[in-house]
């Protein structure tokens, strides 16, 4: 199916309609996704430009900074434009730059949720996602404060990240899940079965690291198609994802307003059947 105008929107949970090309705010932090962003004024401009350009889905996390990224988003965009969905995540300790340690302790998860509400300046988080299932903590224990937050109206919808089908089904016995955020792009497709499962089950699939274009052996193929469309390699990578499945929501990140516009322009690229099939061959 071509990436038509109709397929460029998606309803999270069946009722929150968003544009499938969103924005991932992780890069708006210090080196190693740690600390405050170096150029805060530029970061605010990127966020405002994204929303002004039609982005109504922004992905962040307590762990980005940590905490700084959520506060930055609130400083830049609050009071939020009607229809803007800000998804956040919890469940990682950040002892230092580029260090990510899963923490599924219930009290820690509860503090993540309460902190995100405060920093984002919202009464309800539209989409809260568990960064990782902690192998050292029963997922039922991890999700207790999440379920309590849902019951209290503090979280509307819940998602998971880096999970397999068995883990998704285990969690779905506890509470409804509306999205899965796994590593997936043109060159990394180990989660094909999860993507297909989410499409069949009516769940959103949010690829992280969506701009990777694949191994060197694909470079010539991608470049040929990019030249035909007068597009960049990154735009073709995004266009392929939009075409791959209608439940894919994209969150490419950048610190550049110019690159932001380039990424969003990928929505205007329609790959032919032959082009899509050529890119799909690894």
TrEMBL record:
A Pfam family assignment: Aldo_ket_red
GO cellular component: cytoplasm
InterPro entries hit by this protein: AKR, Aldo-Keto_reductase, NAD(P)_OxRdtase_dom_sf, NADP_OxRdtase_dom
Keyword annotations from UniProtKB, A to Z: Oxidoreductase
Molecular function, one GO term: oxidoreductase activity
Domain of life assignment: Bacteria
NADP-dependent oxidoreductase domain location: 20-280
Name this protein carries in UniProt: Oxidoreductase
Annotated source species: Mucilaginibacter aquatilis
Lineage, top ranks: Bacteria, Pseudomonadati, Bacteroidota, Sphingobacteriia, Sphingobacteriales
């Amino acid at each position: 199916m071509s990436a038509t105008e109709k397929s460029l929107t998606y309803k999270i949970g069946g009722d929150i309609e968003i544009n499938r090309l969103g924005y991932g705010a992780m890069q708006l932090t210090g080196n190693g996704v740690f600390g405050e962003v170096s150029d805060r004024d530029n970061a605010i401009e990127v966020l405002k430009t994204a929303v002004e350009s039609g982005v109504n889905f922004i992905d962040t996390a307590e762990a980005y900074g940590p905490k700084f990224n959520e506060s930055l988003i609130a400083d830049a965009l609050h009071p939020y434009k009607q229809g803007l969905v800000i998804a956040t995540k919890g469940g990682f300790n950040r002892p230092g730059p580029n260090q990510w340690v899963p923490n599924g302790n219930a009290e820690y998860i509860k503090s993540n949720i309460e902190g995100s509400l405060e920093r984002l300046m919202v009464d309800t988080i539209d989409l809260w996602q568990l960064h990782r299932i902690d192998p050292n903590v029963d997922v039922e224990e991890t999700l207790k404060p999440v379920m309590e937050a849902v019951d209290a109206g503090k979280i509307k919808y819940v998602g998971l990240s880096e999970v397999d089908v068995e883990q998704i089904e285990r969690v779905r016995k506890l509470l409804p899940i509306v999205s899965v955020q796994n590593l997936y792009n043109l060159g990394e497709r180990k989660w094909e079965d999860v993507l297909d499962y989410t499409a069949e089950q009516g769940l959103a699939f949010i690829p992280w690291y969506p701009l990777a274009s694949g191994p060197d052996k694909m470079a010539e193929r991608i470049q040929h198609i990019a030249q035909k469309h007068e597009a960049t390699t990154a735009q073709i990578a995004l266009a392929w994802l939009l075409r791959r499945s209608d439940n894919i929501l994209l969150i490419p990140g950048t610190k550049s307003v110019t690159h932001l516009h380039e990424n969003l322009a990928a929505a205007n690229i329609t790959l032919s059947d032959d082009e899509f099939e050529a890119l799909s061959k690894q």
